[in-house]
Amino acid sequence: xxxxxxxxxxxxxxxxxxxxxxxxxxxxxxxxxxxxxxxxxxxxxxxxxxxxxxxxxxxxxxxxxxxxx
Length: 69
Hints:
Blueprint: E1 20-26, E2 32-37, H1 44-49, E3 56-59, E4 65-67
Antiparallel strand pairs: 1-2, 2-3, 3-4
């Protein structure tokens, strides 16, 4: 549960694909950010620039990203 949010808590993240579709927090300490992305409807040029589109991503609190699928 998130009790309060301040401006210093906010972060802007860039994801390696053009169509993020969902985000959720998880992990034992709720400090992992998991995200999904869409691929349907992307032009071939967009997919060529972002081949991980349609995958699931995880980011840790240090902004290290991993492609999970």
